[in-house]
Each structure stands twice: as structure tokens, then as C-alpha cells.
Write a structure and sequence with these properties.
With 430 residues, the protein is of the alpha/beta class. It contains 16 helices and 20 strands. The chain folds into 3 domains: 82 residues, Rossmann fold; 194 residues, Mur-like, catalytic domain (UDP-N-acetylmuramoyl-L-alanine:D-glutamate ligase); 127 residues, Alpha-Beta Complex (Protein-Tyrosine Phosphatase, Chain A). Strand 13 and strand 14 form a beta hairpin.
């Protein structure tokens, strides 16, 4: 079989290496010649520069990386030619020997995937987490896993055919990545592909409090399990007073906000379905700490709390973060992904927005009297400090991607944290 790999980053490289191990003829295309250096050194046939449809002549399968939009010429030409087109996740999944657990949603994917894997690991299950979480699925093929937990983005799900998780979660659905998918309907349809191959013995977990998720799972043929972070849904799992209920297991409720409780209930539901014991689930619940740049407290000075939620790269996530606090000065903006930013300013707790990046003027247009525009993160920290009062939370929850000013949301969050500490000094612990 002759395979063409589109994209030479982490997923493309892993797919190329797997295809070679399987004995296929492999060629790799990436527009950027610099991205192909390592693959060229490994002896792969590589192509760079402007796309040419000649590259798919004689090709039996095209495997695409998530960074290539479905409207891009390589994708359009492949589909027009009738050549099978799979995402790297689909390609890797077809060669897994272990059952697969998959997690998708607009927000919370990484938290749920990591927590699910941790619950299984604490039970003694040989498990790995892969996919959109940073480790390409193709790179873990061939290892003797008991279970593989996959974080599945809409980009990866869009070009799946046989992908079949025995347990899946569709956490929430809100507008996102419209610059990639084009429409909200196309985005939601891509998310829904997580369950199209499931059977009634498989489970599909969804947030019963998220209208987008409720609508998206309506067509599922698997067993749906509603979950909640603040109540106990009928025939589902959730929170009941001081306990977390997951099936027939009741565990002490950790002191976390609703969004994290929802994530942990989802993770526990998935993990229990594929072999986690109550102790494994309980250990993760009792010791859970949010990951970097996910509503992490930088410090407290003069009664003001500074919080880093740089991971909030869409309005849905930013609104959820801002709604968790009573009085907020919100630092927002960046590169918009074709989404409506008005909900950020509409959150009742947000009394002022400090806006930066490409989307700053979009926020000004929504509520000019409540938005201050700055050019740098340093200026954003200074402006927020002037606007804050005792009892205020200064929240970095941009609602946008970081790529106009930073290489990643992590770099953006790190810059914010460093500048806050430099500006404010030693945390007074108040």
C-alpha cells in the first residue's frame, strides 16, 4: 500500500513511522521544508512547497494531521479523487490491540482523559493516554496496553471511519474552531463521530447540564450515561450532597468547583466501565489538582486573587471560568477562532475587561465603556491591578487562541504568572 502523510509535526511523524513499520510505501508532504528535516534524515521521501495534486497519484491512502483544515487543497483534492482519507488517530486506532476509551468536547478533554488514565493506573491497569493530549496515537501502537485513553479533537474525529471506543465521553459542545470547520453544525457533527461505531454494550458519557452535549448525543446507539458536577441526574452519575455517586460507588466529594467535579465524574464513569476499582477512582478524586493554566491561583495580594486560566481558548471556557467568581477583572483577547466574544462581557461577575491581541477591538465593540485595550501582557497586568479592589479576582481567561502574541497558551500563561509576581512581589496569602 502506498500512503501519503499530510503534515510532518508530531502526529504526521508518528503516522509515517507506523506506516513504515507496517511495510507500506510512505511519502510525506508538509508545506514548510523545515518541518521535514527529521523525516528526511530517517530516509523518508518528503515533499514541500506549494501543494500539487500530482502527489496523490498512485496513492492508496492519505493520512492527515489535525493542523490541516478540511477546506485545504490537499484535503479537497483527496476527497475529490475518491482516495481514502483518514486522520492520524483513525490510522493509529486501526492497529491498536487494546480497547480504547475516547474523550471529546469543547472543554475539559485533557482533564478527563488524564484523570481517567490515572484512575486506571491506580487500579493496576496498564494504560496510556494519547491523541490530542500530546502523544500521537500511532506512536503507542504495538505496546502491550490493557487500555488506551484517547483525547479526541474535532479535527481528529472529522476523518474517522472505523474508530470504535468501548467507552466515550462527549463532554460539552459550544461554538469553537469555526475557522477550521466552517460552521457550528460541521463542528458538532465532527464531535458526534466519537460514537457512530459504538454498540449498545458501549457507553457514551455526556454532561446533562450542557445543551450542546444533550443535543449531540441524541442519535447515539450506545448506552448513554448523563453526568453532572452539581446534581445526580436520573439514571446517571453525579453529586449528591457531600458524596460523588458513580454507579453503585459513593465517594467523598472533593472541594472543587462544578466544572472540575463534572470532569471527575465523567472520568470515573469511563474508568469504571473499563476496569477501575473504587479505590483507584477515589484516590484520584481526593488528590486531584487542576493542570497548569487551568484556573490555577498565581497568588493573593491586598485581598485580590490572581488566577491563570490561559487554557480557556474559547468563549465557552472563558465564560465558565468567569462565572466561578463573584467579582472579576477579566484579561481577554488574542486570536479569535471565528467565534462570538460578546458572552465574555455579558457574564454578570465581569465588571471590566482588559483586552489585548488581535481580538481587542471586537471586545471594545461589544461594551466600549467596560473594556480597556492594552498592547502587551505587562500592560494588561498593570491595568488589571489598577482596576481591582479587595475581593476582586483578576482572571486571565482569554477566550481566544494565543498565536497572535505567543507560541502557545502555556507560554501566555507563564508570561502572565511571571509578570504578576514581578509586579506584586511576595504573595501575602490573604
Amino acid at each position: 500500500m502506498n500512503v501519503l502523510i499530510l503534515g510532518a509535526a508530531v502526529s504526521g511523524t508518528a503516522a509515517a513511522q507506523l506506516a513504515r513499520r507496517l511495510g507500506h510505501g510512505v511519502e510525506v508532504y508538509d508545506e514548510q521544508v523545515a518541518a521535514l528535516g527529521s523525516l528526511r534524515a530517517e530516509g523518508f521521501m518528503v515533499h514541500s512547497g506549494p501543494w500539487s495534486a500530482r502527489l496523490i497519484e498512485g496513492v492508496d491512502l492519505v493520512v492527515t494531521s489535525p493542523g490541516i483544515p478540511e477546506t485545504a487543497a490537499p484535503i479537497v483534492d483527496t476527497l475529490t479523487a475518491g482516495i481514502p482519507l483518514w486522520s492520524e488517530m483513525e490510522f493509529g486506532a486501526r492497529h491498536l490491540d487494546a480497547p480504547c476509551v475516547a474523550v471529546t468536547g469543547t472543554n475539559g478533554k485533557t482533564t478527563v482523559a488524564n484523570a481517567t488514565a490515572a484512575m486506571l493506573e491506580h487500579t493496576g491497569v496498564k494504560v496510556c493516554a494519547a491523541g490530542n493530549i500530546g502523544t500521537a496515537l500511532s506512536s503507542v501502537v504495538g505496546e502491550p496496553w490493557d487500555v488506551v485513553v484517547v483525547e479526541a479533537s474535532s479535527f481528529q474525529l472529522r476523518f474517522t471511519e472505523a474508530f470504535h471506543p468501548v467507552a466515550a465521553a462527549l463532554l460539552n459542545v459550544a461554538p469553537d474552531h469555526l475557522d477550521w470547520h466552517g460552521t457550528e453544525a460541521a463542528y458538532a457533527a465532527a464531535k458526534a463521530r466519537i460514537y457512530v461505531n459504538q454498540d449498545p454494550q458501549d457507553i457514551l458519557v455526556f454532561d446533562a447540564d450542557d445543551p450542546g452535549a444533550v443535543a449531540a448525543v441524541a442519535g447515539a446507539g450506545s448506552t448513554t450515561v448523563p453526568i453532572s458536577g452539581w446534581r445526580l441526574p436520573t439514571e446517571g452519575n453525579g453529586v449528591d450532597g457531600d458524596v460523588v455517586v458513580i454507579g453503585d460507588v459513593e465517594l467523598p466529594r472533593p472541594d472543587l468547583d462544578v466544572s472540575y467535579l463534572s470532569d471527575l465524574v465523567a472520568a470515573g464513569t469511563l474508568a469504571r466501565h473499563v476496569g477501575a476499582d473504587p479505590d483507584g477512582v477515589g484516590t484520584v478524586l481526593s488528590s486531584f489538582e487542576p493542570g497548569p493554566h487551568r484556573r490555577t491561583v498565581v497568588g493573593r495580594w491586598d485581598g485580590v486573587t490572581w488566577v491563570d486560566d490561559s487554557k480557556a481558548t474559547n468563549p465557552h471556557a472563558a465564560v465558565a471560568a468567569a462565572s466561578a467568581y463573584r467579582d472579576v477583572v477579566l484579561i481577554a483577547g488574542g486570536r479569535n477562532k471565528g467565534l462570538d466574544l460578546a458572552p465574555l462581557v455579558a457574564v454578570p461577575s465581569v465588571r471590566h475587561v482588559v483586552a489585548l491581541g488581535e481580538a481587542a477591538q471586537e471586545l471594545v465593540a461589544v461594551a466600549p465603556a467596560r473594556v480597556t485595550v492594552v498592547d502587551t501582557m505587562d500592560a494588561a497586568v498593570e491595568a488589571a491591578d489598577q482596576l481591582a479592589a479587595p475581593g476582586t479576582t483578576v482572571l486571565l481567561a482569554p477566550g481566544c487562541a494565543s498565536f497572535d502574541m505567543f507560541r502557545s497558551y502555556g507560554e501566555r500563561g507563564d508570561r502572565f504568572r511571571r509578570l504578576v509576581v514581578e509586579h506584586k512581589g511576595v504573595d501575602d496569602g490573604q
